[in-house]
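Figure 2 data, in text form.
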Amino acid sequence: MKPGPVLSHLGWPLELGPAQDVAPDGAWRSATDQDGIAWLVLDCPDSGTNTVSELVLTGLAERLDALEGATPKAVVIRSAKKSGFAAGADIKEFEDLGREGAEERLRMGHAILDRLAALPCPTLAVVHGAALGGGLEIALACDARIAIDGASFGFPEVRLGLHPGLGGTFRLTQLIDPTEAMQMMLTGSSAHTRKAKKLGLADVVTEERHVRNAVRALADDPPSRSSGLMSSAFRFEQARRLAARRMRSETEKKAPKEHYPAPHALIDLWEEHGADPKAMQQAEIASFADLLRTDTAKNLIRVFFLQQRLKSKARGDSGISHVHVIGAGAMGGDIAAWAALKGARVTLGDVALEPLGKAMKRAEEICKGAHLDSLGTRDALDRLMPDPNGYGVTSADLIIEAAPEKPDLKAKLYDGLKGRMRDGAILATNTSSLRLSGLRDGVPDAARFAGLHFFNPVPKMQLVEVVSHDGTAPDVRDRLLAFCGDIGKLPVPVADYPGFLVNRALTPYLLEAMLLLDEGVEKETIDRAAVRFGMPMGPIALADEVGLDICLDVAESLQRDLDEPIPEVPERARTLVADGHTGEKSGQGFYDWSNGRPDPGDGDVPDGLTDRLILPMLNACVECLRRDVVGDPDDVDGAMIFATGFPPFRGGPMHYARARGVGEVTAALRTLEEQHGPRFRPDAGWSRLA
């Protein structure tokens, strides 16, 4: 019998059982090996990633027809994609379905997975990479799961305003500790290999080369299931009621029911039906169909497609394999570590040895946070080389300058690069406040100079602004966009403008909050207004977290270069910086950070306070659109969500403005202009948005 196709995961061919061509219109290949074990291999056509579409489910149903008629010794389900098992359901298929259509589609999917679960032979899911959403639900319908080292399991549906809809709610809570299961579904968090084994989600953890033996062992001796103590306890309604009450309290703090109904609907499901899987299955279908029609789900699904849109800008070959980073401070060190983690060869330069040492230590923490195993961490650190003498400059494809925001210092660094950079190399600055037009005269080649504006903290923030000045060569911009894709970031192309897009929009928001402080409004009240609107944290806390010194640099740069009025920097902020109280990094800013991130608490929010904070941000976004700083409103929405945490359930600032009504927003701005001055004057671009 011919061997399967050679696909690799971590350098080892994927074990796919006997070879079998995929039908031209299908997503599955299937065959039975000499041990009598049937292999079903998922390989969605025309895609590098499997998604659980109607095609996948109906194709599975056809394979089940054959398996039910001739029962094999065991059935193995796995993916042929190097990217992983499956990335979830194809949400596009639900977009235009009404409630009845959604329920019908879900019932069809449930019936197919019920048939898989009912096969009389052992069923085994072999998972490499990620098994998410609908992909995990297929794996849960199997009797056992074999995890290849590095695998992860999760239900991210809550991020789409939904909860699992193909049986995940009852199968996961029946399989593992129900409180752990609920935590996974309520937060959208993933269980990586070791945790999955500990939870009982993965039965076996192995390496790719041992898959065949693991399959044979489980086929001969499938795991027996018995309800654990916690599962047994939660069969009683009173126990579920007490646990659900705690879950609601914790969930409300992070995902208020008013804005995020899905996790609360999931708690209701489990509390009411947790002891009856069949009843929970029917309730899951109805609840999922109801959630699909909510504004939150529609907006969060919109955000998902905004994310895909930004990813699409990163297509192509960057031609960048060696990156040299100048500056081993917090930003430069993290940029270097992240690029190395994602496969680039990186040299990291700095005039001092101490920051290089700190950067290397931090790199280990970043690898740990990314769930790299010891081998992956070793490889990433091997790709990251401290380079105090800057030898990497001569061979780098891309040089990223991440020095302090001082034009004279940057000019000196650029002068030192002249005659040393190789032909075709790109120089990119990570500046957040300086115009490229003011820096380009000192660079070796202005056509090959651009901006790569990362956001802090680099490992967590997805967005990168790719900044072009009017002399940047088009191929340079395209290569930098592709490089962002290489390192798993979302790029948004922007023009050279004061603050670019994100800081141009965010700075008035932060300064207005500081002015409110000077007017006597309590900082907790200001932050509470923003958090209740949906921001991840308030503007005063955010200014402290970013660093008040950095906020001052950006604000002064914008005041110097912008034609439009923005709030003056309050003296209180200047005084704090002068005294060394720069925020979280110094332990003291507007807040005392010695006890962790501040909590704005409960309390009233004065009428009009939220608009005074949020509407200047919207106004600045419209200005950036009018001046062609950014391509279109969707790019604005994606950038502001992924860089600032603008409430995803609102769909982005421009989507929020249109949903609220452009006329209403501009009227509110005019009222604020009458009360507080010209900084609130509606931008001329609102008429185009309307």
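Caption note: Residues 1-10 have pLDDT under 50 and may be disordered.
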